[in-house]
Design goal:
There is one protein chain. The chain has 86 residues and is mostly helical. It has a domain of 56 residues: 30s Ribosomal Protein S18, CATH 4.10.640. Helix content is 34%, strand content 0%. It contains 4 helices and no strands. The model has no long low-confidence stretch (mean pLDDT 87). The protein binds zinc ion. Zinc ion (ZN) binds next to helix 1 and helix 4. The site of zinc ion has 7 residues, from helix 1 and helix 4.
Length: 86
């Protein structure tokens, strides 16, 4: 006769989930300054709604994310990038 044992539920608690560190694509390119006229590059970091992709998604480092937001905001003012999708 086999004893009825409750199967231990193996569930990873949300606390121990370690997010994989993404590499900053701009650091990889050794790009220290971002040109606000470089709309093709900046376009990679905005959503189709025109929003800036957050750091946790894009994996950018703090320094590059800051440079990126400045560049995107400048590019918006001179109409290289949209403020929002219509
Ligand atoms: Zn970086």
């Amino acid at each position: 006769m086999s004893p009825k044992k409750a199967k231990p539920v193996k569930r990873k608690s949300t606390k121990e989930r370690k997010p994989k560190r993404k590499n900053c694509g701009l650091c990889m390119e050794r790009l220290m300054t971002l040109d606000y006229k470089d709309a093709m590059r900046l376009r990679k970091y905005i959503t189709e709604r025109g929003k800036i992709v957050p750091r946790r998604i894009s994996g950018n480092c703090a320094r590059h994310q800051r440079a990126l937001t400045d560049a995107v905001k400048r590019a918006r003012v001179i109409a290289l990038l949209p403020f929002s999708a219509e």
